[in-house]
Specification:
The protein is mostly helical. The protein is built from 10 helices and no strands. The chain is globular, with a radius of gyration of 20 Å.
Length: about 170
């Protein structure tokens, strides 16, 4: 399925879906919670203990989230670049970035199920919300047709655009 110009950004590539940003937020949530806790500077408000029961849970969440750092980093470079060689390398890498995200979501869901089993399946709203969010991410990454097109698209280098503009003048 092809998507028309209404799905393109100013560089002529497919726009990033909002759900992709939410996917990165869910998979990298341990890092975001860590940053928020570091920035809060209120000792009486222990955000880390609200989100994680122990240090081991926190470090496990960081390790699982580390699987999604590479796709997030490559995504940050998804804009026209002047260096044609680095753009071509990143374009080749970008095509396969769906797989680390899928693997991260699967491992995260397994880890959440193990956490639920260790609490003897006693209901926890925070754990249930995380499981639903990660399950949504997993289904979105596996079933989205637009993501297939999005991961196969990479912006053209700036040098080609600038040379075509100068030829038109």
């Amino acid at each position: 399925m092809r998507y028309g110009p209404e799905f393109w950004d100013k560089y002529g590539t497919y726009r990033t879906p909002i759900a992709f940003h939410l996917t990165l937020l869910v998979l990298l949530r341990a890092y975001f919670i860590w940053v928020i806790a570091a920035l809060s500077r209120r000792p009486e408000l222990d955000i880390m203990s609200l989100a994680f029961r122990s240090k081991q849970d926190f470090f496990s969440a960081l390790a699982i989230g580390a699987l999604a750092i590479l796709p997030a980093a490559v995504f940050c470079f998804r804009r026209p670049q002047k260096n044609v060689l680095s753009a071509a390398r990143l374009a080749r890498i970008w095509r396969f970035m769906r797989w680390p995200l899928l693997f991260c979501a699967v491992v995260d869901l397994i880890w959440l199920v193990v956490q639920a089993a260790h609490s003897y399946y006693q209901f926890s709203m925070f754990l249930a919300l995380q499981m639903v969010a990660v399950l949504w991410v997993l289904l979105y990454l596996a079933k989205s047709r637009y993501l297939t097109v999005f991961f196969n698209d990479w912006p053209d280098p700036e040098t080609q655009k600038n040379s075509t503009k100068s030829n038109k003048r």
